[in-house]
Design a protein that fits this description.
single chain; alpha/beta; 60s Ribosomal Protein L30, Chain: A; 4-stranded antiparallel β-sheet; 8 strands
Length: 117
């Protein structure tokens, strides 16, 4: 896929958005970000699709990983902004994320976590 960087340019930083992928070029380096969420999916009482934290952890990264790999990009890290204040939920999320990443052959990919509000 040829990427046209006709997006925003600030000095030598160029950005482009193609579907759900965000591309940023800085000199010769290219960073690609794919973001997804799991609104309405989970274990909370009003979630229309009920599932475990383990399942939700897998769901939350599956689409982002597929989008990147379809664009020919191999992810080098995963970032999770985790909003719940429950360590047991977090551990299950991470376990689900690691399993899903492993299914894509990303067994050693680092997962970075921040704790949102």
């Amino acid at each position: 896929m040829k990427i046209s960087f006709s997006g925003t340019s600030i000095k030598n930083i160029t950005a482009a958005k193609i579907r759900d992928l965000n591309y940023f070029r800085l000199g010769d380096a290219l960073a690609v970000f794919s973001v997804d969420s799991s609104g309405g999916v989970g274990h909370l009482p009003n979630d229309p699709y009920q599932c475990t934290s383990f399942q939700e952890g897998g769901f939350i990264i599956k689409v982002a990983l597929v989008e990147m790999m379809c664009a020919g990009v191999r992810p080098v890290s995963i970032y999770l902004d985790f909003a719940f204040d429950r360590p047991d939920y977090l551990e299950e999320y991470l376990r689900g994320m690691r399993k899903e990443a492993g299914d894509f052959g990303l067994t050693e990919i680092p997962i970075f976590v921040t704790r949102g509000a």
